[in-house]
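During the second year of the project, the team shifted from modelling isolated chains to modelling whole assemblies. The rationale, set out in the original proposal, was that interfaces cannot be judged from single-chain predictions alone. As a representative example for this report, we include one of the complexes processed in the last quarter. Its constituent sequences, exactly as entered into the pipeline, are reproduced here:
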Amino acid sequence: MEIGRTLWLDLTLAGLITGGMYALVAVGLNLQYGLMRVMNIAHGEFLMVGAYLAYWAYTLTGVSPLLTLPAVFVALFLIGLLVFRLCFRRIARASPSVEVLEARSLLVGFGLMFLIQNGAYLAWGADLRGYEYLARPVEIAGARFGANRLVVFAFAVGVSLVLLALLRFTLFGKAVRAMMQSPRGAQLVGIDVGLLHPVVFGVGLALAGVAGALLSMIYEISPAMGEPYTVTALIVITLGGLGSAPGSLLGGLLLGLVETYGTHVSNPSMKMLLSYGVFVLVLILRPRGLFAR
Amino acid sequence: MSAARAVVATGAAALVLAAAPWLLSDFLLSLTVACLMYAGLAVSWAMFSGPTHYLSLATAAFFGLGAYVTAWGVATLPWALCVAGGGLVAAVFAALVGAAVLHLRGAYFAVLTFGLGELVRHAITYFEKSYFRTVGRVLTKTPDATTVYLTVLGVAAAAVAVAAVVRASRLGLALRGIGGDEERAQTLGVSTRRMKIAGFALSAFFAGAMGAAVAVRWTYIDPPAVFNPFIGLQTVLIAMVGGAATLGGPLASAVVFSLFTEFLRLRFPYAFLLVLGTLLIVLVLYLPGGLASLVERRRPAAAAGGAARGAGGPTRG
Amino acid sequence: MADVLLAARGVSVRFGGLIAVDGVDLEVSERELIGIIGPNGAGKTTLFHTLSGLVRPTAGRLSVRGRDLTGRPPHVFAAHGVARTFQTPRVFREMTAEANVRFGLEFAGRRRAHPHDAFDDARSILAFLGLAEVASVPAGALTPARQRLLEIGMAFGARPDVLLLDEVAAGLTERELETTAQLIRRVRDELGVAVVWIEHAVRALMGVVERVLVLHQGRKIADGSPALVARDRAVTEAYLGGEEPPA
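Output from the structure prediction step:
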């Protein structure tokens, strides 16, 4: 019984951590796509960049990754502004229709993915890297977890909740939500699209970077680590409903749990199959998302 | 150029190129195979994604599936069956996937097809490990280089010919309508679901057949080698540069890019992918219609104004 | 008694909390010329969406020539003879005018009978609409007025029994309105196609159609001859908050 419970708790925590990462990445992508119809297929790559930033910060200076989190956020935010300015703004302006905008930003994202990933390979090599941080086990309810895992989970959920609060209660957040519901109406009320878009894009990337930094605390990192997260983020967005940040949070956690339990029962290689299966099911049964009214 | 003329021209070109094994050195022959492979992949990609503007990033998945059909079958099945089988497996897979996801918005479709490569790779890795207790395979009893060359040539020529025929056919018209305004096409009698699945499967067939044909160039195959997202990038890039709406565009740029690739890939594996990625970005930003659009600007252009929605796409202005 | 071509019984459409169409009954018989009017937001276009299969009604049934087609996709409706135009012309901008018309002929119109030789091929359809000289021009390059006509031409390509016209007169001058009205009459008189016409330019519509339906907030509030409907108190009230009352 003791062993069974430990396993159960272990899996649940692992699932929630994974889910928390999915949620962070998905919320960013949700904001970007829901607002601007820009599907940044390179989104996962920025997670990877965040992971490496935290890694280098810790390895070179010994500063706790928890403290570098804000720095990673800011760094990725600025990178996001730059990427938007260089790559996506022109497309947004020059596209004759939404479909064209989507298609072109996809292609740009595709190219960006190769650019960033291979840049990382060139700069940092293909080897897996990792570091030890807060790896001491901690006991909760008779089960032992690495302290770092607990911390990561807490931070993932915490950041998501902060974001949700921002979206709900601040003027900026309301502007974002207004724009997502009615772009034209929001503009008429004076919300500055030219400012909002790059900022939201930047925040999206920053969230991915934070997720990466958190991940670096518990897993090994490599230039290819980000790729699976983009697809999964899309699946989470579908689960939670496009445009719904709370939906992405819940959907992400849910998917993380399903994956962890599912691969434990079957096989780690089944992870993607499981995610796709969930995706297709949701599409068929609840295409507007699990939580749509 | 009418479909009939295009098919004849393709046949003639194929006949000429068929002499290559007896005229070219091994090195040049290998280079030609690479060119033909990319040409075939690009043309088959453009067959569906060109007119419909549904960006498919599944080429790597189809290619890999075909390669594995060869990996599993080349020692026991006749060569022609391997190649055709590779195409068929890819086509069936595409039809199934298409039935599930082709009704989605373009962005969802693209990201999902992108994930397919990873999905199939994992599935095959698992399958190989569980049932065959192996990670990779050594290919034995493979056909000689001349046969391989002629097969690749055949698949590429078939892809071009079929693409020409489709363009002139009802399917091609339906696909263009879907790309122009999908709902409108529906109200005019097009069963868009069926047409999209058909187009997608057809394009997958050639990618799969090509994968099957080319797989024997490796003596040792494992999933990461054949499920290589680079194939997808190269294919999309080629079609973009050439202009996915034309027939000749992808062909011409395939030659240029495969030469470029073969010379650089082995020496600078990461740097050259970085360059290609950057190139794609620059292209999409500044020349979305590909080089072909530069040619088109000399002809009278369609007016850009008007309120009609749904025009344009990844390759047309 | 003429055949009933298109019938909607108790059709309702809800979008979340909004009721766009509320229990509407409509019957279109052969060679009828029907108008649909109503203030903005009355649900007219949404009704068209259900009649052409683009939107599945949340309640009610739709039948074409007695066949229940509720919930079937749009191409099935088109194959059974229901063709439509859209408020803003949705032409295939990159294709020539002729290719646009040919599109319908290749698909919905393929196996449908065409009693009038105006429906023979793309050329004859374009000629009927006065677009013969722009046959080779890309649709995106046509003037808006011509694009409107091309919209109708595309619908003709489907060789319909019923033509649903959605506000073809928007933004037209008085003269152009007159021409359009005449054209619509010709469609019914010469080609034998039943027409259902949504229009805001109520005066022009009332002068042409034989029967008028009035929709208000999703519900049908009147259905009769133009003269009767013009005198209907409910109709006048509905319009008091909106645009011009029918006269």
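The first helix of chain A runs from residue 2 to 36. The beta strands of chain A are 137-140, 143-146.
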